[in-house]
Write a structure and sequence with these properties.
There is one protein chain. By secondary structure, the protein is an alpha/beta fold. The chain is built from 13 helices and 21 strands. A five-stranded mixed barrel has the order 1-2-3-4-5. Strands 7-14-8-9-10 form a five-stranded parallel sheet, covered by helices on one side. Strand 12 and strand 13 form a beta hairpin. The structure holds flavin-adenine dinucleotide.
């Protein structure tokens, strides 16, 4: 009888893509003393998150809030600004600085953990062999790995019949290359990215129109919080065109204004705007992977199906991050990367997806964790709500945010905290207090019986808890 030797591979774990999902998978495996590599086709690490998505958009938002003086307007009036005539250069100065820093920190982290970073485009030769197409012209090389993690993310969908030109008809990546701040912009698609950019431009005084086929904005967010955001959008002079379908987008020459974008709606309306930001859908970046060679197929949007352990149809090949679809956040992508690496390497890892928070960086920002009123009503769970307005809290007055709202939802009988929903300054930080209490199975009474620093926005938790308990009678 002959005993077959176990196959030997160059790497224990090979990761395709250096965005947040790929980074975390690689670092987790490296911490377990495994041989790990990341294949990245861009010259820089960090994926959409650092280079074109999360980090640039959040930094642009911060620059816009600072230079426009938006945060102070509650105190000093609507005409208050820090800088007159804000330019794209003003905004991008800060963005470039942060991107460079984040790339450097990430590279250093990978180096410190002895992860081989290979700049090449990856494609499958078979289920354990990956072909590297070096981008510097060094040709091809094949590498083998016991486990593969696909973390290739997404690319913005560019419909063929739209004449994207990078200055008037844009996808979100193009915003980082705009040579001037437009006077008007129409955002097509009111998903998270579309609404966030609509808010940034509105804060800068740009005339914004937001179009979406759906009648309700971000249906996964608590309705009361979205009503509050809708109020803010309208008071920032954003024109909402909901329940409207875009039929045509064309660049036209206007005698008095130069180049304009003309948008035709199915309802017959026409919108003339300086720029149109097309923010509908992103497709999984799987087209170059030669998935068939590994025994895999993607869906019509380039996405991969996985099980609860993030395994694809081929068990030693995992897929994590945006390439598997919702929720498509940097935060959840990182966690999926960690969990996939642990599963691949036989290490137990605990995670509580029901407690993943959502941070939506509109102006004002929104953050939620747990269930909302609509979900609890549908599930027949008896709940009560406690609310605190920022204006009731000293810190709210000090920072000039009088419209923020923190809402707690708890079980009517057990008082268990079931959800927290916040709109207002600092929402994405404040949410983690509620998240921690929920993770430990805490009740709303915790907030009643605890002492918060004074004056802080965190005090909203106490005020909301009292409000909720009082409603119980
Ligand atoms: C405008 C915008 C704003 C956002 N804001 C937020 C936010 O505020 N908070 C948040 O949590 N999330 C936000 N997101 C989402 C977040 O950026 C993504 O969820 C996150 O980047 C996904 O990480 P990933 O690792 O799956 O993929 P990516 O970050 O997309 O990285 C994938 C990497 O794979 C590489 N790659 C692809 N194919 C190959 C191949 N064949 N070979 C080698 N390399 C390959 C790509 O070059 C890329 O570097 C935002 C996204 C956008 C677009």
């Amino acid at each position: 009888m002959t005993i077959e030797a176990a196959p030997t591979y160059e790497y224990d774990l090979l990761v395709i893509g250096s965005g947040p999902a790929g980074q975390r998978a690689a670092i987790q495996a490296a911490k377990l003393n495994k041989r790990v590599c990341i294949i990245e086709r861009r010259a820089v690490v960090g994926g959409v998150c650092i280079n074109t998505g999360t980090i640039p958009s959040k930094t642009l938002r911060e620059a816009a809030l600072h230079l426009s003086g938006y945060r102070e307007r509650g105190l000093y009036g609507a005409s208050y600004t820090v800088k007159q005539n804000i330019t794209m250069d003003d905004l991008l100065f800060r963005t470039d600085h942060v991107i460079r820093h984040e790339i450097d920190v990430t590279r250093h982290q990978l180096m410190r953990n002895h992860i081989d970073l290979i700049v090449a485009e990856a494609s499958f030769v078979d289920a354990h062999t990956i072909r590297l197409h070096y981008l510097d012209g060094r040709g091809l090389r094949d590498v083998t790995a016991a486990h593969v993690v696909i973390a290739t993310g997404t690319t913005a969908t560019k419909e063929r019949n739209i004449a994207f030109d990078g200055q008037h008809i844009l996808i979100s990546d193009d915003l980082l290359k705009l040579n001037h701040l437009p006077r008007s912009i129409t955002v097509i698609g009111a998903g998270v990215i579309g609404i966030e950019y609509a808010c940034i431009f509105a804060a800068l005084g740009v005339r914004v129109t937001l179009i979406d086929k759906r009648n309700r904005l971000l249906s996964f967010v608590d309705a009361e919080i979205m009503d509050a955001l809708t109020y803010h959008l309208r008071s920032s002079r954003v024109t909402l065109r909901l329940g409207e379908e875009v039929k045509t987008i064309e660049l036209v020459e206007d005698n008095s204004h130069g180049k304009r974008v003309r948008i035709g709606l199915a309802s017959g309306k026409q919108i003339s705007t300086e720029c149109a930001l097309h923010s509908i859908g992103r497709s999984g970046a799987t087209d170059k992977l030669n998935l068939e060679a590994a025994g895999l197929t993607a869906d019509e949007r380039g996405r991969l199906k996985v099980n609860a352990a993030y395994q694809t149809a081929v068990p030693h090949i995992y897929a994590v991050g945006d390439v598997i679809g919702f929720p498509s956040l940097a935060s959840t992508s990182m966690e999926q990367g960690r969990l996939a690496a642990c599963h691949a390497l036989g290490v137990e890892a605990k995670s509580v997806p029901e407690l993943f928070p959502y941070g939506i960086y509109t102006i004002p920002e929104i953050s939620t964790v747990g269930r909302n009123e609509e979900e609890l009503t549908a599930q027949g769970i008896p709940y009560e709500v406690g609310k605190a307005q920022y204006r009731e809290i000293a810190r709210g007055q000090i920072i000039g945010d009088s419209t923020g709202l923190l809402k707690l939802i708890f079980h009517m009988e057990t008082h268990e905290l079931l959800g927290v929903h916040i709109i207002g300054e600092g929402a994405s930080e404040l949410i983690h207090i509620g998240q921690a209490v929920m993770a430990f199975g805490g009740t709303v009474d915790y907030f009643v019986n605890t002492v918060f620093n004074y004056p802080t926005l965190a005090e909203c938790y106490k005020t909301a808890a009292f409000d909720g308990i009082n409603r119980l009678g």
